[in-house]
Design brief:
Largest sheet: 8 strands, mixed
Strand order of the largest sheet: 1-11-12-13-16-10-9-4
Shape: elongated
CATH topology of the largest domain: BirA Bifunctional Protein, domain 2
Distance between the termini: 59 Å
Strand content: 15-25%
Structural class: alpha+beta
Length: about 425
């Protein structure tokens, strides 16, 4: 959520930011509501002052004892306070209605792009920042679905039978390999990057989803447990960020960095027909999320640090990847700036996003009311997060990059301790 003062003091900044994004918001309506709110608030202050004065007069008149004139004046003053009370209630109801309307509209306004974000309206205009590793050379490997099926690593057909498409089953060494990735990610973040591991709930309430910006805008993409008013998490970002909702964090403890594994659930209601084959777009998948809370002045240094943390994992896995800086028109709803990390899938012959690393500045902190005290002043801090990493597309890249000549899979060295020392998943002899 944007700073409400911008709507009355610097609406042109909002207008320019939304224009860069290509976002359509009825700013004039919001400004008019804010003006009306302030008028009513001024009226309320005046009415309350009049009621207080009338109440003081009643007290004075009652001290006059049995004087008939004073009694009559007190009666009239009491009637006035009742009338003022009725008017105050009517004005307060009107104010509350406008306040609710303004908040509903404000919750649908995206964050403003940081000044350094490249111009552009679509992913085609994103900027390649860097590239690591050498692109795969040699004979084209088997597609990850074919390779994985031959190695007996997963079963999409039975997953579809028990739930539906987009819900794979990992089998045998495939299940162990996915677990190895998750354990490696968590252990590396904790041991090498100083993160605190968190194991959060995968069900959250509506306010938590509002706090991180999933609701109300993306409600159709969320899985709901309607009977309990809960949502299955689309990412660990939601419960981990909201751990500190309505708190004032000690500035001396900042930055706070968490790493959390959860299963993630996404209906992907707006993505029908896009990349639906295999692991490319799942409704249920596993991911380790990095979440940070920082002082505002240090959040962009933290943003670069989070990006490095995610990149290091890909380097340790020996995967060729590139870093993309998203243009203004391709930013996620809550991000002020975002990097995507994309791995190269040799059989797919394309780049696959495996991480998004975002700085939200105070956008989420305002929604979730997360603050700190700096220089004696209470203010909203900055939140950041990034995938570190999601497993499905990493598995795709592993299966297609580290494939042996006979269709087996070489296990990257960093995963071998988690695989019982196994160096290769060998192809079955025919």
């Amino acid at each position: 959520m944007l700073d409400p003062r911008l709507y009355r003091e610097d609406v042109d900044t909002i207008r320019r930011g939304l224009e860069r994004r290509g976002a359509k918001v009825d700013l004039d309506a919001m400004v008019n509501i804010d003006i009306e709110k302030r008028k009513i608030n001024g009226s309320l202050d005046q009415l309350k002052a009049e009621r207080n004065a009338a109440s003081d007069k009643i007290a004075q008149l009652k001290r006059a004892g049995n004087d008939p004139a004073a009694a009559e004046a007190a009666k009239q003053a009491i009637e006035k306070t009742r009338s003022l009370g009725d008017e105050i209630k009517a004005q307060q109801d009107k104010f509350d209605d406008l306040e609710n309307r303004f908040r509903e509209m404000a919750l649908m306004v995206p964050n403003l792009p940081h000044a350094t974000v490249p111009e552009g309206r679509s992913a085609a205009e994103n900027k390649v920042v860097s590239e690591w590793g050498e692109k795969f050379s040699g004979p084209k490997p088997k597609h990850h679905l074919d390779a994985g099926k031959e190695l007996g690593l997963f079963d999409f057909e039975r997953g579809a039978k028990i739930t539906g498409s987009g819900f794979p089953i990992y089998v045998g060494l495939g299940a162990r390999l996915e677990r190895a990735l998750l354990n490696f990610f968590l252990d590396y973040h904790v041991a090498n990057h100083g993160f605190t591991e968190i194991s959060p709930p995968v069900l959250v309430n509506r306010q938590a989803m509002i706090g991180t910006g999933q609701l109300p805008k993306f409600e159709e993409d969320m899985y709901q447990v309607a009977a309990d008013g809960l949502f299955l998490v689309p990412t660990a970002e939601v419960p981990v960020t909201n751990m500190h909702a309505n708190e004032i964090l000690d500035a001396a403890a900042l930055p706070i960095a968490y790493a959390a594994y959860t299963t993630c659930f996404r209906r992907e209601a707006g993505a029908w027909g896009k990349d639906t084959r295999g692991f490319l777009r799942l409704h249920q998948f596993d991911k380790v999320e990095m979440v940070m809370f920082t002082e505002p002045a240090k959040s962009y240094a933290a943003h670069e640090h989070l990006r490095t943390c995610a990149e290091t994992l890909l380097q340790k896995l020996g995967l060729h990847y590139r870093v993309i800086e998203l243009c203004a028109g391709d930013l996620g709803f809550g991000a002020a700036k975002c990097y995507d990390l994309e791995v190269w899938a040799p059989a797919e012959e394309r780049w696959l996003e495996v991480s998004s690393v975002s700085n939200f500045e105070d956008f989420q902190a305002r929604r979730a009311n997360i603050r700190t005290k700096l220089d004696g002043k209470t203010q909203y801090l900055h939140t950041l997060n990034g995938s570190g990493l999601a497993t499905p597309r990493v598995l795709v890249a592993l299966l297609e990059t580290h494939q042996t000549a006979d269709g087996g899979l070489r296990i990257p060295e960093v995963l071998r301790p988690y695989m019982g020392g196994l160096t290769e998943i060998k192809a079955k002899k025919k």
